[in-house]
Design goal:
The protein is an alpha+beta fold. It has helices at residues 2-6, 23-29, 47-53, 115-135, 204-222; strands at residues 8-10, 13-15, 19-20, 34-43, 58-62, 75-83, 92-99, 105-110, 139-142. It is globular.
Length: 223
């Protein structure tokens, strides 16, 4: 139902559903992770304005031909896209020249998106649009521009990951499978910075799992 995707309150917090391709479809089309979230419903005569405000996503013109439709007939729904980015060594977190109140150089995020990132999102939306049509739920018009992210002002989800990437080869990563920094016996990192790739879900639970796993390993070393 619409309420499942638009979010609802629960005793433990808010529950929200997302649309995503199955793992099989992802592998078949060689796509990065991508989740699509219905954000709002607008009247048909306001659909163009809605697209102007949120061109990062797609719009669905739903005809409500089946029971329990996502939205009512003649209305448009905006879908926000949260997409995984392929690991990119050109993206960096570095120290800039400006200093803070304590005279320390400020951190600068040099975030770069590649052509594959755009192509993966576009392809995912195309597959999703076909599935919506086949299901009879409605029609999905992809508003993602042909030039991809270069034609947009994409927003990050405030989880910068991968700066101390985990890999057994020190030439391709910073930490090993035990979260130990290559070449140093007593320096470990546990956080989303060690993720080899990023996915599309919030990283908190994985960070906790890494921290618990690392704490067990450190206790073994002290015995």
């Amino acid at each position: 139902s619409a309420g499942f995707y638009l979010g609802r309150r629960h005793a433990a917090g808010q529950v929200r559903g997302y649309l995503a391709l199955s793992e099989e479809e992802q592998r078949r089309h060689r796509l990065l992770n991508c989740r699509v979230e219905p954000r709002r419903t607008v009247a048909a005569n306001a659909a163009a304005d809605a697209l102007d405000r949120d061109v990062r996503a797609v719009a669905a013109d739903v005809d409500a031909a089946v029971g329990d439709p996502l939205v009512a007939p003649g209305r448009f729904h905006s879908l926000s896209v949260i997409a995984e980015q392929a690991p990119n060594p050109e993206s960096r977190v570095r120290l800039g020249d400006p200093v803070d109140a304590f005279g320390q150089r400020r951190v600068v995020l040099d975030w770069r998106l590649g052509s594959f990132d755009s192509a993966s999102v576009r392809r995912t939306l195309d597959v999703l649009a076909r599935q919506v049509a086949v299901s009879g739920l409605g029609r999905l018009r992809v508003a993602f521009p042909e030039e991809g992210f270069a034609g947009l002002d994409p927003r990050g989800s405030y989880h910068h990951m991968g700066t101390t990437r985990m890999h057994p080869d020190p030439k391709q990563g910073v930490v090993d499978s035990r979260c130990r920094v290559h070449g140093l016996a007593n320096l470990f990192v546990a956080g989303s910075s060690v993720f080899p790739t990023y996915g599309t879900n919030n990283p908190t639970l994985t960070i906790l799992a890494l921290a618990f796993r690392l704490s067990d390993h450190l206790k073994e070393l002290l015995v």
